[in-house]
Design brief:
This protein has 195 residues and is mainly alpha-helical. It is 73% helix and 0% strand. Helix 2 crosses helix 3, helix 4 runs parallel beside helix 7 and helix 7 packs across helix 8. Keywords: DNA-binding, Transcription, Transcription regulation.
Length: 195
């Protein structure tokens, strides 16, 4: 049985862990991941560096992983309505899915980098992949399964769709694709998936 004191202590530890992750994410979104150091995080949350290491013994990589997992949870929640929508046309559902994904990447570039570009301490595409990471992919699969004429191989099509959307994000952020044609790219991708 958990005592009230133990429950309070656990709650305080979780609140501190969330403050560390929130501070890391805010700092990364404002100044980039190079600005995220344990010293700067300790200053931001007004605790010592040993306190940070008490919560994240593996240091910065573990903090980046926590930010990535938080991002995956938010992205999955944002994509879920497209997978569950029983209304609208195929084009509308796929467009909504792609738009939500692109908007998430645009609004949270550092979090997106943590999710897909920086080293993290979780496996992908394996039985050990955390459920929170799988949920975004499952939302993409769910959207494809609800098409009037779903692809014969939904998992592979979902991988290709995810790769295409990620490519749009990466190439746009790198300045390789001008913003002026983003809507045309989106519509072309939607047509390729729905026709």
């Amino acid at each position: 049985m958990t005592t009230p004191a133990a429950a309070r202590r656990a709650r305080q530890l979780e609140e501190r862990r969330l403050r560390i992750v929130g501070a890391a994410r805010a700092l990364a979104e404002e100044q980039g991941w190079d600005a995220v150091t344990t010293r700067r995080l300790a200053d931001a949350i007004e605790y010592s560096q040993p306190v940070l290491y008490g919560h994240f013994p593996q240091g910065r990589n573990q903090i980046v992983t926590a930010v990535a997992l938080e991002g995956f949870e938010e992205l999955a929640a944002a994509l879920a309505p497209s997978a569950l929508a029983g209304t609208g046309t195929d084009v509308e559902r796929v467009r909504a899915l792609v738009t939500v994904y692109l908007d998430f990447a645009e609004r949270h570039p550092a979090t997106y980098d943590a999710m897909f570009l920086l080293p993290v301490l979780v496996p992908f595409a394996s039985d050990e992949t955390p459920e929170v990471v799988r949920a975004g992919f499952e939302a993409i699969e769910g959207t494809l399964r609800r098409l009037d004429d779903p692809p014969a191989d939904v998992p592979t099509t979902a991988e290709v769709l995810w790769a295409a959307v990620h490519g749009l994000v990466a190439l746009r952020r790198a300045g390789r694709f001008p913003a002026v044609h983003q809507e045309e790219r989106l519509e072309t991708l939607v047509r390729l998936i729905t026709h």
